[in-house]
Amino acid sequence: MRGKTGRYVLASACVLAVGVPSVAIGFGEGRVMRMGERNPSQNGTRALGAETQIIADTATYGTRQSNKRVGDGGGAIYGCRSNPGTEPCIRSNNLQGGRAFEFVTKGSEAGRIELGDAGGAPFTTNATGVATGLNADRVDGREAADFAAAGDLLFAVVDDKQALGPKRGAVGAALADGAKNTVAVTFDRDVKDCSYSVSPSGTAAAEPPSLAVAPAGDAKTVLVDRPDDSDDGDDANDPALVGFHLQVVC
To answer: Which of 74, 194, 207, 242 suits a disulfide with 250, CB 3.0-4.6 Å?
Structure first.
């Protein structure tokens, strides 16, 4: 009897040794995942102490998660408690040159980014290229239509002898009316429906030149009428000719 009892005790010990994982493994490590339950335990204080790795070698996807319920219910949710500068809750790392992520929906909104600090940046990037199809509706609170394109801003710097200096879009400047000191500035495009502004160059005390509209029949020319007293009969006291800066915004 003692011999049989001893064999039973030894067999029971072997079963326990095989069926109960070693404490060194940690709680839940090495166990089979239970579907429809919290893993590794219903006790929220018990959690795995090591990564659970799912490694595949397949031409499609390593894992697939889907919720077949129509109308309500997501596919997956991931949570973490990382501090800034540490691991993100989700990281997608393509070790080759393809895409690291892709979002697809049949709806009109592909996703949403919410911040605890609404004044923070929704995301950052080291990329400097143009994002094809990305339309920034507002910049610093302004609509895109509030900003003029570089090609819409024309200017000409003309000296007191009608010589053309720095310019954008201007192709020439010439004295149009010597008696009235009027200068014609010609541009490489139609400017008849644009707005004009002019300021004198030189001393701050110079009398600002007045601006006349583009002459009829020449939509590419703007007339700048500089101050003169040519009609008072006292040519000796006529004001000196001034250079000017002309800006045209279309």
So the answer is: 194
Contact 191, 248 (CB under 8 A): yes
pLDDT reported for residue 200: 85
**What's the confidence (pLDDT) of residue 171?**
96
| Chain Cα centroid distance, residue 80 | 27
Average pLDDT over residues 101-125: 93
Question: What is the per-residue pLDDT across 19-69, written as a single tens digit (0 to 9) for each?
Answer: 444 444 456 788 888 888 888 888 878 888 889 999 999 999 999 999 999
Could you tell me if residue 30 is left (phi over 0), alpha (psi between -120 and 50 degrees) or otherwise beta?
left
Domain boundaries, the chain: 150-249
From the list 204, 210, 206, the residue with the least C-alpha distance to 240 is 206
Distance CA 62, CA 99 (A): 16
Look up tokens 């889907």; give the residue.
66
Label residue 217 left, alpha or beta by phi (over 0 means left) and psi (-120 to 50 means alpha): left
Q: Tell me phi and psi for residue 152, to 5 degrees.
A: -85, -10
